[in-house]
């Protein structure tokens, strides 16, 4: 260990995630000496192996899908081929341009970036195991933890042997993006965001795909009707979907084949063969290597850091941001954590003091699963409406939407939940073309506290998808 005294900073940020970077720039701009420590890539999961690369791959897969359907638009496309190295290169190029953009912004802001893995040695004392070797010790008046999550490796008999013998066949959300060939048969464990986005995109790129989902339905947060509709769409795309199914064992089955044993809820066993398996059964927080036991920072039993409404923790001067707080784990939530701290720490360049908190944004955090069609949602699902609250529900198939028909993409449905007394919208889901964008329109109406009738009477451009918000309310029913 180095004997030099630790470098002293006003602020140390551990993790260059979606909140760590803007916070580092804002602190530096406000005159606070700031160090940002990053173990791997500047920009964190979102731009390196999360949102940006997946949505880039989803876009390539959608082109393949549309090209195969070209005849239904009266267009002739002789053959549809997939050049996987080119698909991957497009993804790599976009990632590298975003990453270098982030690096450039930090440099321009004058942030001191330290590449290495940080761990605590005391309450606000840190040692960094530097990427190039050696270590750097530092102490901060304030420490911000933005270390994110990583994929879970599920407990599955035979998995470690297969990973040892054939590591290229066992994929997670990061390694699957680096494939240079389309898998022959992809077995996906997990029917959440990652399993479904990758499952569908690789199906479109030409793989056979089976999704094995332990829960009784896909996308467990959704109401059952939406989850069923999504399952139907994926099955129509040629994906085998097994819900209520637990993978019990995996082994090599001769040659390059894997054999996965799956047990359904009613006890039936099924053997699935595949060339690759994608582990998409959730993510776990990167707190296990932070040596938090050297501090009094409290973590819950799943390893997430416990936090207060203003993102303080159980230790004065230590703050937490992003996925490491626990769900919901989204880029827009992590970025908003930055805004909460920017305002509470007086870093807003406009000098504005806004008391924003985690609670004040609760209830209006949207999300969008980038299947095609997209599954967007904001507010409460019907199954989350508190007992005793009287609501009405409107459901409408996307095939009633002019724009969806004109573009020949009428799959899916939308669903709105409205407070029966006030007429205000309490939740909205769109599983349909540009569902994520439509949800943003409804989110604004919810932010403004509009009565649904104001959307029913709003003049939207024809034939924008949002025009369907004139008609949806005609289907409102008591529940
Ligand atoms: C495949 C995939 C697709 C996704 N798609 C979407 C999407 O479409 N929309 C969406 O909103 N969200 C999406 N997400 C989630 C989104 O990426 C995260 O919610 C987002 O990146 C926020 O993360 P964060 O700010 O908490 O930290 P992260 O972005 O996870 O960054 C944490 C950083 O900390 C670093 N780190 C960890 N430990 C240490 C340490 N000890 N010392 C130093 N550095 C450390 C890590 O290397 C990492 O760079 C996706 C995630 C995945 C995996
Ligand atoms: N578009 C987006 O916003 C987006 C995209 C990707 C990831 N993300 C974020 O990343 C997080 C992690 O994604 P994820 O898909 O890994 O997790 P998830 O929690 O969304 O889904 C995991 C699914 O795996 C199932 N499962 C768990 N163990 C299993 C097992 N042994 N066998 C079969 N199924 C099993 C669970 O029932 C669950 O439905 C998401 O919750 C989300 O916050 C967001």
UniProtKB/TrEMBL annotation:
Active site, per annotation: 462 (proton acceptor)
CC cofactor note: Binds 1 FAD per subunit.
Pfam family, one: Pyr_redox_dim
Cofactor: FAD
Residues annotated to bind NAD(+): 190-197, 282
Domain Pyridine nucleotide-disulphide oxidoreductase dimerisation residues, every copy: 365-470
GO molecular function: flavin adenine dinucleotide binding; NAD(P)H dehydrogenase (quinone) activity
SUPFAM superfamilies documented for this protein: FAD/NAD(P)-binding domain (SSF51905), FAD/NAD-linked reductases, dimerisation (C-terminal) domain (SSF55424)
Keywords recorded for this protein, A-Z: FAD, Flavoprotein, NAD, Nucleotide-binding
Gene3D superfamilies referenced in this protein's UniProt entry, alphabetically: 3.30.390.30, FAD/NAD(P)-binding domain
Top-level lineage group: Eukaryota
Domain FAD/NAD(P)-binding as annotated: residue spans: 9-335
Transmembrane segment boundaries: none
Cystine pairs: 46-51
Flavoprotein keyword on record: yes
InterPro entries, alphabetized: FAD/NAD-bd_sf, FAD/NAD-binding_dom, FAD/NAD-linked_Rdtase_dimer_sf, Pyr_nuc-diS_OxRdtase, Pyr_nucl-diS_OxRdtase_dimer
Residues reported in the UniProt entry to bind FAD: 55, 323
PANTHER family in UniProt: MERCURIC REDUCTASE
Family label: Belongs to the class-I pyridine nucleotide-disulfide oxidoreductase family.
Protein name (Swiss-Prot/TrEMBL): FAD-dependent pyridine nucleotide-disulfide oxidoreductase
Protein species of origin: Microthyrium microscopicum
Lineage: Eukaryota, Fungi, Dikarya, Ascomycota, Pezizomycotina
